[in-house]
Structures are given as C-alpha cells and as structure tokens.
Amino acid sequence: MTNPLLAQFVAEAADLLAEVDEGLLRLERDPADVDLVNAVFRAAHTFKGSSGLFDLPELTRLTHAAEDLLDAVRSGALPLDAEMVDGLLAAFDAVRAWIPVIEATGSAPASAAATGEAIARRLRTALGDDAGGSSPVTVTVAATPVAPTVLAPWVLDLGEETLRGLLPWLEATGASIRALDYRPDDGCFFRGEDPLHLVRQVPALEVLEVRAPDDLPAVTEFDEYESVLRFTALTRAAMQEVQYVFRYVPNQVEVVEVTAAALARLLDGGDEAEAPTEAEAPEEHRVLVGLLAAQRRVLAAGVPTPASVTAAVRVALRAASALGLSVTSPAEGAGPEAVLAWVDALVAAAGSPVVPAQRTAPVDEQDAGAERSADGPVGEPATEDATAGSRILKIEQSKVDRLLDLVGELVVAKNSLPFVAAAAEEEGHRVLARRIKDEYAVVSRVSEELQQAVMDVRMLPVSTAFARAPRLVRDLSRKLGKRVRLVQEGEETAADKDVIEMLAEPLVHLVRNSLDHGIEPPEERVAAGKPEEATLLLRAVPDGDAVLVEVADDGRGIDVERVRRKAYERGIVEESALESMSDAQIAELIFAPGFSTADQVSDVSGRGVGMDAVRSAIERLGGTVTTDSRPGQGLTIRLRLPLTMAVSRVLLITAGGQRFGVPIDDVVETVRTPWSSVTRVAGREVLVLRDEIVPLAPLAGLLDLPAADRGDEVSVLVVRTATGPLGVVVDRFHQNTDVILKPLDGLLAGTPGYCGTALLGDGLVLLVLDVKELNNRAAAAR
Amino acid sequence: MSDQDTSRPRALVVDDAPTVRLYHGEILRSAGFDVDEAGNGFEALELALATAYDLLVVDVNMPQMDGYELLTRLRSDEVALTCPVVTISTEADEPDADNAYRAGANLYLVKPVAPDLLEHVAGVLTSSLPAPWSAS
Amino acid sequence: MPLQLGSRTAVLEGTVTVEEAEPLAAWLRQTAGPRVNLRDCSHLHTAALQALLAARVKVSVLPADAFLRAWVAPLLERFAATPDQKPLANSSKEAS
C-alpha cells in the first residue's frame, strides 16, 4: 500500500508545486489578489497535510512554516513583499529538489534537515519581525511545539488511575490538558494570600488534589498561620488563563501542558514504545472510551441538531456495546439534556474520569448529600438536614398531563351546574336550586385549586434552563479571546416545565449574542476604564404571576447610531420614520426580522438566527422582551414570562370549512340532533333543550364564511352568554385541547370576534372565538 | 469480486488532497468498506444526499466549503443525516475540535491518523446497533 | 457572623476569613469529635481549611457551594477517616 500512496503523493506534489510557482510569481506582481494568496496558502496547507502521512519530518516542517507565513498574508496581518516571495520560492524549490529522492528512497535526502531548517527560519523571521504584535499569527506559530516531551513527576500526584483514564480521551481527540502544581510557601497567609481562593478561580477544573504533609500535626500542636497545603490540579482552561490566575505568585506555581504522548510516556516509565504485549486490549478500550467521551462533547456543544443527537446516540450505543456495557437506549424523543445525562452515565460506567463539563447537577448532588448526612445524625438538629432530605418522587410527564386533562373535564362538568340550577328553579325547586349554586361555588373553588396544584407539579427551577450557560460562556469566551465571569442569580425560581424548556433556546442565543457583540475584547475594556473581566449576569426573579429573566452584561450596550444606520441600509424602517424615533425605539429594532448588527455572519451567533427569533420564541410563550441599553456600560435584556403557560382548554370545531377553537369554560354542551327537532320561534331557529329555548345561530353566517350543506343532523355548540344560552351551529366537533392563547397581533390585531390565536400541535394557527362577541352578532342579526 | 456488494458497508472519504484521500480510502477498503471519494465539500454533499453511507470521513480544512460547513448542512434539520462522521484535521487545537463536535462530528482525529486506529474506529462506528434507536 | 461555635458543631456561614481561623482553631482544640456544618459556607480561607483537616472534623452538612462541595468536602471526609498522628488523650475515639 505504501507504493501507490507514495506515487500518488509524488504526482500530487508536482501539481502543487506548479500551482505554487505560478501563484507566487503572479502574486509578486499583484500582491492584493486575495484569491491568489488563498490558492497558494491552500497548496502549502495540502502539502503539509499529505506529507504528514509519510515519515518526512523535514518536508512537513518546511511546508508548515510556509503555510503559517501565507496564513498571515491571507489574514491581512502581513503585506507580502519581495523578500517573502523569495523565501517562499526557495522553500518550494527545496521541496522540488527533494521529491525525486523521496520517490526513489521513501525519505528525504540527508541534507534536507539543515536546508529546510535554514529556509524555515527565514520564513519565520519574516513572520515574527513584520507581524509585530499580531497575536493570532504568533499564537499559531508558538502553539505547535510547546508541549514538553517530559512531564514533571508531580503530575503523577494526580493519581495514576485518574491519569490513565484521561489518556484515551486525549488520544482520541488529539487535545491536551493543563496540569498545575501550586506550592504556597509557609508564610503566604501573612502576605494576605489565600491559596484555596486562587485555586477556585481556575476555570474548568477537571481534577483537584489537595495534599497535606504526611506529618500534619494534630490540631493541638498546629500553627494555623503556617501554610502547609499543596494543590495539584488538571484543568481544561488555556495556559494563559491558568497563568493569569496565578499571576501574583508565579514562583510558587508550575503549569505544564499535558499531551497524550507525554502522559503515556510518564505513565509507562519513560519507554517510548507502548507498553508491550498486553497493551492491545487496553488500547482498544481507550479508543472506545474516547469515542464515548467524544459523543458527550457533541451533545454538550452548543445546540446539537436532532440529527446530531441521533448520530451521537447511535455511536455511543455502538461504543458502549463494544465495551461490553449493558445498555438501554435513552427514551425516544428525549431532549439533548437527557441524552447527555445518559451518555455521562455510559462514560462513568466505562471508567473514565472525564468529569462532566458542568458541576451543576443539583438533583444528583443533593441526593448524594442526603445519603451521606444520614450516616451520622448524632446530636444534629433535624432541621439542618431538611433541605437536603426533602423527598422527591419522580413522575412520568404523561401521568401529570393526564391529571391536567381530568381537571379540564372537571371544569367542563362544573360549568353545567348553573344550568342545572336554573332548570331546577324553573321547575319550582328553589331550595334545591340554591343548594346547587352553593355546591357550584365549592366545586369551582376546589377545581381551581386542583388545577393550580397540578400546574405546581410541573414547576421546574430556572436553573434547568441556565444549565447550558456555564459551558457556553467558557467555550465562547475562550474562542473569542474575551474574559467573562458568569454570575447566576435566582436559579431556584420556578416556572412551568414548558416555559423552562422553551426558555433554554432563546437564552443560549442571548448569551451568545452578548459574548459576541456586547462584551468587548479585554484591551478595549481596559481602554474604556472597565475591569478586564466582563460580567455576564443571568438572573431570574419571580414577579407576581410571571418570572423575570434577565441577561445582563457590562459590555458596550447597543450602539444606537449603528443600529439606525443598519436599519436604514437594510430597509427595515423608512428614513423619515427613523428620524422621529427615540433612541429606545431604535434600540428595539435589533429585534426586527432581518436585522443583524454583525457585519458578517460570525460562526458564534451566526447561523441565520437573529434576535427576532428570540423575540418570537418568547412571545410564543406569552411573554415579552424588553431591552435596557446603557451605551458604553452594558445591555440588559429582560424576558418576562408567564409562570405557567397560559394554558387554555379549547374545543376544536369546524365551521365554513375552517377550524376554530372555543374556550371550554364557555361551553355548556355539544348536541347533535336531527334538523327536524329545530323549530322556529318568533322567526328564529331555536332548539328546545330540557324545556329551555336555545336560539340558534350558524357560525359560518356570523363569521361571513360560506355555509356548509345541511345534512340530516345539526351540530349545536351550546355556549353560555350574559343573555342566556346560545346555540352555535357548526359543521363538526373535534377534540378538546390545551393551547397557549396569544392575543391577536400583526394584521389580525383588533379583529373583533376572536379572543386570540394559538399554535396547534400540527403547526397550524388556530383562531379562538370570542363567545361574547358572537352573541352580540347573533343578537344584531335578529 | 462484486463492486456493489450490499452487505459491505459504504464509506465516503472527503478530502481536497488526493494523497490523503487515497490513504484514508485504502485503509477503509482494506477493512472491507466500499469507498467513494469526494475532493470537495460540494461533491461530498451531493454524494451524501444521493447515497446511504454507513460512515463519512471528512477533512476539516477544505477550500470553499470546509468540513464544518459540510457537516453543519448534513446535520441540519433539512438534511438530517444521522450516519457517523469522523473529522480529520491537521490542527490539534481545542477550538477546532469544539467546532467539529458542535457541527455534529462523532470523532475528531488529528492527521496523520494511524491506519489501525481508523480501521478500529470505522469498525465500531458501523457495527450493528444493539438496540435500534429510532429518532424522530 | 460567619462562625457559630456550638458544643460539638461549628456552623460556618458565608466567607470564612483568615481572621476567623484562629477562633475556629481554638474551638477545634477544645472540642471532642468536632463537626462542621458547611451548608451556607461560600468560601473557606486556606488557614481555616488546614485547621479543619488537622482536627479531622466530620462534615455534618455538606456545603451548597459547588466548588466546596466538589473538592473540599470530599477532602475533609477523607481526612476524617484517617487517624490522628497523635491522638488526644480523651477526645479522639468515640463510639459513633
């Protein structure tokens, strides 16, 4: 297999060299040609990638240097000059000279290392000198070779088992992790240092070992002012982040980059080769555990699409079964959070120490806490354990929904009681009628309380919706090179499950938006006299029958001028209208469809989803979105959400070929009867029901819709109105359903006859009828 | 020697570098896969839409449509491709791995990938599912 | 008041600073089988942590704070399970 592959490489090399030569020469004449720079960069990149398949380190190193230089040119950090072109041409000339030797012998000529090194240095000099402080370039250059090949022995203090478990993940992902050893000196307390406090500032801690000396004296002989502890930790935070935390005590701390190769060498006692013979099985095991760990990253990363979730679950199932774990699939249709928990359990079962990205698993940890504190309840006031010990019963959602259905039916049944009372009264049973009315009041109150109690069961803490934020903020801030502290407040505030679940998505978007657009890079913050580290606050506050959720940052706020310009450019608002708008009104335009302040779609908040999507998601919940922008000081976006979804139960009906909803509270009964039982009284069609005259009105007629053909039977929806029962003639009845009623807006705003719209499960918008208005129309038609 | 033996798993290797494509393709062929190759993201997108692959091996860094974008499209609600995807990159940087996982990759490997690693992973990723999990 | 020192249990609340390490250590010295309730403790100065470790205190209520709960409470529990270097005459072993 080596031969055809090498032949392919030689052929590819010839093509690439021709491309580079021509490109470089044309570039020298026209250095501004972006496409050309790109083409040459790509050729160098491809060269590097392909050469990596062979044992050709000289070639890889040299093409890597050329790639870095071209990348700097491509990104605009470095203008291409003649000298650089010379260097690049020399590099590819050298490669051209090596190729025949490589073709013949499989490796580069002996002189290649020295020649290549000299040219690579020349390229790097151009990069270093002229690029000045341009950080992305310097980082790329520096990032590759930093990991020390030999790890300090203290890394072993983290526990061999822990480290071995980490290895497959590092190997499978090619990632690295940082290990730190912090040895505060004896007198550090006197200088006002608190080592534990510093350690807790380290972001993304994976493992923390606190070590006390073996001869830690008993407390009686102990000098509490002499610092004796030592801290060893693993973190996924970047090197600079860790160094920043310990910037005032650099000589007490050591931080190293841990790569898979270096770690393997440390664990296997300095032997370059993999541990012999029995390494076969563990190696496969590592790959499988690595695969599992990779799936949890898919699920924890941003907002995975359903297809991504399915793919991840399938891969996790395969890896788990290859590991010989007994596996049950996650529940069908389980959300990403549930699937993530499922994968976490598999990773744990596979024996990996890869710690879940978030340590905020309140329920599990509370359970564990309850167990542990139950161990030794000696002389402890019982109340102290009360919070940890509150008992939790897990109930399937479908059972709760069934309860809610029954409550709905109870409400309908209850609503018929006043009519029974009226009938009793008419028949002369006044005492009975009074008692029925009294009972009605009681049943009414109890059913309302019952409904409330069932809704309470569905309450979840807002922390569920906040759960993705810590990881998101960490990943994004690293990616964007910003320093952001996430503060969460009021996570225990509860709201209905549906509200919480639908809140998660918009929150993710708002957090992204804040990090991407609101929060400035550290230099800009310092220049503006702000702390380098930005604060992003997620806060939930109960507010009557609503919950306020705030996403507040101390970034730039909304740049009103810029919004004004964009709104004009994108044709969102007429120029004349813009002039008369207040700053606050203009700031609101960020929610307009088609508006995006990012000059280009960034891959952070890009993907075509705008703030308008956030607003419409919140409004779908029956909530509102407001902004409070303080230019230069920050932006607060305030979501006001109903505590419970304003769930209304409606009866679905068809009339005039369209579907409508009628609030179930207004419905007395539904009747199907032969047309022959309809009589006319005073020129109107009426139905006599239990000795009561119910005037009929065709719904199609009231709504100016085409009337359906009359069949043998008539479907009458009897509704309760201020002037007595009304029989609304409809085409057909359907089922009852819970909907979230939204007021009419947009084109429909102010249309009489409807009390709102609702989105049905099948995605259709349902118009919900206003019975009072229907009655008015029926009366007017008389 | 049938080319289209339906019992053999099918894989698509996407890379703009022919040598790398051949390398990954050969590893998979010798592991018993029927392998198609695509030299860019667009070609890959077309092939993946037309063929039910059991595995995709995708280079991250390609011109015009890179691996992330290809993957994001394949995993989008419109396409909803659920077959396992291995992404391969020259960069060992964490952010690149993060991007790949966010786009829906099931594994991020750094070039050059050892043949037995790719073979092992490909085998596991296309093994029969223990309990079919049907997603909506 | 971040420190409430009872007959056997100390309740630590909020941020326990270096100044509080001394009264805490003094209390630990004179208390047999000491226990700490960390529920509302949000941070513990290293000096106070050392004193708790040296006294092999038992944690009676786990801290709500995520960092303390994840890293510090298990450490205290591990230490409580190891015997004192030099057991005190009348306090160290007690039937639980």
TrEMBL record, chain A:
Residue intervals of the Histidine kinase domain: 434-645
Record's catalysed reaction(s): ATP + protein L-histidine = ADP + protein N-phospho-L-histidine
EC number(s) stated in the UniProt entry for this protein: 2.7.13.3
Keywords of this entry: Kinase, Phosphoprotein, Transferase, Two-component regulatory system
Keyword Kinase belongs to the record: yes
Annotated CheW-like domain residues: 647-780
Keyword Cytoplasm applies: no
Domain HPt: 1-102
Residue positions, PTM Phosphohistidine: 45
Chain positions covered by the region annotation Disordered: 357-389
CDD domains, alphabetized: HATPase_CheA-like, HPT
Subcellular location: Cell membrane
Stated name of the protein: histidine kinase
Source organism per UniProt: Motilibacter deserti
Lineage: Bacteria, Bacillati, Actinomycetota, Actinomycetes, Motilibacterales
Automatic annotation (TrEMBL), chain B:
SUPFAM superfamilies linked: CheY-like
Keyword Ligase part of the UniProt annotation: no
Membrane-spanning intervals of the chain: none
Domain of life: Bacteria
Coiled-coil region(s): none
Keyword hit for Transmembrane: no
Domain Response regulatory: 10-126
InterPro entries xref list: CheY-like_superfamily (IPR011006), Sig_transdc_resp-reg_receiver (IPR001789), ST_Response_Regulator (IPR052048)
Record keywords, A-Z: Phosphoprotein
Modified residues (4-aspartylphosphate): 59
PANTHER family: TWO-COMPONENT RESPONSE REGULATOR, TWO-COMPONENT RESPONSE REGULATOR ARR22
Name by which UniProt lists this protein: Response regulator
Record organism: Motilibacter deserti
From TrEMBL, chain C:
Domain of life: Bacteria
Organism: Motilibacter deserti
Protein name as catalogued: STAS domain-containing protein
